[in-house]
Design a protein that fits this description.
Blueprint lengths: L2 E6 L6 H14 L5 E6 L5 H5 L7 H11 L9 H12 L1 E3 L2 E5 L10 H15 L4 E6 L4 H4 L6 E8 L3 H16 L4 E9 L7 H10 L2 E6 L3 H9 L11 H13 L6
Parallel strand pairs: 1-5, 1-6, 2-4, 2-5, 6-7, 7-8
Antiparallel strand pairs: 3-4
This protein binds adenosine-5'-triphosphate and magnesium ion.
Length: 255
C-alpha cells in the first residue's frame, strides 16, 4: 500500500526543506523506492535532493500539444502520453523524482490531464511512499490533480499570519472534498518554547501538532553552497527532529 505524504503551507515556510528531510528519513530507513513529486511550478525540490531533472511534466504536456498532430505511426495518444510521462521520471538509487513544472497555458487540457492523472496514480502504486512538495497556493489541489493523501503536513513559520494561512488552506481542502486521511501541523524555525498565544492559535486549528523544527545552521549553509539536503549528517538538529516526527507519524515496518 502506497502512503502519500504531502506538504502544504504559505510561501517560504520551509516546505521544500521539510520534503527533502522526510525523503532523507525514509531513504535512511530503507523504505524505498520513494517517489518524490515536485508539484511547485518554481520547482526546486530537485536541487534540495541533488538530482538533475531533464524535463518537467509541464514541458511534456506542451510537447504533446505541439506534436499531437503527428504521433509516431501506430501509436495512440494515450500510449504516447504514457511514454512521455515515463521519460520525465528521474530514477536514482531508492528515489525517483517527478517534476510537475509549469502550469498549463490557455486551452483545454482536460483530456491530457485526465490521462496524466490516471497514469500518475498507476505509477504511484509502485512505491511504498510518495512525498509531494507543493506550491504555496495549492492551486494544483484545487485543480484536483492530486487524489488521496494519507498524511497532509501543514507547515507554518512562527507567526500568527502563518498559522492562520494554515486555517485557510484547511478550509479550501474541506470545500474541495479532497481525500486526506490525516492532517498534521509542524512549525518551522521556532524556539522549542512557544508563547501561550501561539499555542492557543495552534490548538484552534484542531490538527495533530507534531512539533517544532529548530533553526538549523547547516540547512542555511547547504542552501547557500548548493549541497543536497540528503547529505546532511544524522546529528543535524532539523534531521533529528524530523526523524522523531516521522517515527510518530508513520509506520515504516523497519522500526
Ligand atoms: N529549519 C531551518 N533552518 C534553517 N533554514 C531553514 C530551515 N527551514 C527552511 N530554511 C531555509 O528557509 C528558506 C525557505 O525554505 P524552503 O525553500 O524550504 O521553503 P518553501 O516553503 O519551500 O518556499 P517556497 O514557498 O518558495 O517554495 C530556504 O533558504 C531554507 O534553506
Ligand atoms: Mg518550495
Amino acid at each position: 500500500m502506497t502512503q502519500v505524504i504531502a506538504v502544504a503551507g504559505k510561501g517560504g515556510t520551509g516546505k521544500t526543506t521539510l520534503s527533502a528531510l522526510i525523503i532523507r528519513y525514509l531513504k535512511k530507513k530503507g523504505c524505498g523506492p520513494i517517489l518524490a513529486v515536485d508539484a511547485d511550478p518554481n520547482a526546486n525540490l530537485a536541487d534540495a535532493l541533488g538530482i538533475q531533472v531533464p524535463k518537467s511534466l509541464g514541458t511534456t504536456r506542451e510537447d504533446f500539444f505541439e506534436s499531437k498532430m503527428n504521433l509516431p505511426p501506430g501509436m495512440t495518444k494515450e500510449t504516447y502520453i504514457e511514454m512521455k510521462l515515463h521519460e520525465t521520471l528521474v530514477e536514482s538509487s531508492g528515489l525517483d523524482l517527478m517534476v510537475m513544472g509549469r502550469p498549463e497555458g490557455p486551452g483545454c487540457y482536460c483530456y491530457v490531464n485526465n490521462i496524466l492523472r490516471r497514469h500518475i496514480d498507476l505509477l504511484a502504486k509502485n512505491y511504498p511512499f510518495v512525498v509531494m512538495d507543493n506550491e504555496a497556493g495549492m492551486e494544483h489541489l484545487s485543480r484536483r490533480t492530486t487524489q488521496g493523501v494519507d498524511h497532509l503536513l501543514f507547515l507554518s513559520d512562527y507567526s500568527i499570519k502563518g498559522i492562520r494561512t494554515v486555517g485557510k488552506i484547511r478550509e479550501l481542502i474541506a470545500e474541495l472534498k479532497l481525500s486526506v486521511k490525516e492532517k498534521h501541523l509542524i512549525i518551522d524555525r521556532a524556539p522549542q518554547e512557544l508563547t501561550p498565544g501561539f499555542r492557543e492559535e495552534i490548538a484552534r486549528q484542531g490538527l495533530d501538532f507534531l512539533g517544532v523544527i529548530p533553526v538549523d545552521d547547516l540547512i542555511f549553509e547547504y542552501d547557500l553552497t548548493g549541497k543536497p539536503l540528503l547529505n546532511l549528517p544524522d546529528n543535524s538538529p532539523a534531521v533529528r527532529v524530523v526523524g522523531e516526527m516521522m517515527a510518530k507519524m508513520i509506520k515504516t515496518g523497519n522500526g
